[in-house]
Amino acid sequence: MKEATAPTEPQPQAESPATERPTEQAAGTSSTGAAGVVAAITPLMDRDFIARNQIVERYLSGKLPIKGATDFERFCHAEPDLLDEIGLPERVNAGLRLLEASGKPEPWQQAPKKFWEKPQLLIGLAAAVLLLAVTLAVVGSASADKTRSITKLKAAIAEQPLEPAATTRTIRLVPSRTGSSNTPAITLGGTPAELDELHIDMTRSPYRAFRVTIDRVDQGRVAILHNIMKDSNGQLHLALNSSALGPGIYQFTIDGLTWRGDPEPDAWITIGIEH
Length: 275
Hints:
The strands form 2 sheets. The protein has a 5-stranded mixed β-sheet, with no helix packed on it. A 3-stranded mixed β-sheet has the order 1-3-6, with no helix packed on it. The chain folds into 3 domains: 37-102, no CATH class; 123-159; 167-274, Immunoglobulin-like. The chain has 7 helices and 8 strands, in the order H-H-H-H-H-H-H-E-E-E-E-E-E-E-E. It is rod-shaped. The protein is of the alpha/beta class. Helices cover 40% and strands 24% of the residues. Residues 1-42 have low confidence and may be disordered. The protein has helices spanning 17-40, 47-52, 55-61, 66-78, 81-85, 88-102, 119-159, and strands spanning 167-173, 186-189, 194-201, 209-216, 220-229, 235-241, 248-257, 263-274.
């Protein structure tokens, strides 16, 4: 007897890898090329794209790239009605109200200048400098005049010029026998210079010879004249040029000389000199 043999099913044939790879490669190449083309295509700027990608908000916040901002500005230039649709004027007004409420200036306003940048300060400084320059010029001129005057006076003091006497005047004086005084009995001098002959009455004095001391009040001694004799009329004779002494008050102390030559206070007289 023959054994029955079970029919065998045909085994599926394995697909050839060689035939499968070209297909996959072709598919991969096709999908990659499509992605590259999609990436290379710049999306068109339209109203739907602007709303979907929040272009307005990103533009106002400064987060939009330069190219995107440029495209958006170009689109707004071509479609100005879009600004009204997105309510841009209202947004700008709201931003301005916020700036006003916060106390900050509007963007188009200039920043407040510092006090040293204000033109009023520059004008004030210029005026002060000009005034200071004029004051210095006036003070310098006055100082120069004073310097010349001081130099002239110093030269006059150093030279001690003596003016020639144009006239001669005889003056009779009665001295005080009780004490000296700072009140002048007479004032000599003036212009022009004159030769003053002083006749001092000493008739009441018992002395024949005298010593005369001349002092400038509150300054110092001027001269001491020894052994001056009175004449037969009892008068002492002194003559001086009125320009020889400086202006001031001069006190004459007349001492009588004893037979030993000792001075004894006897009389006093005060005169004034002016130029």
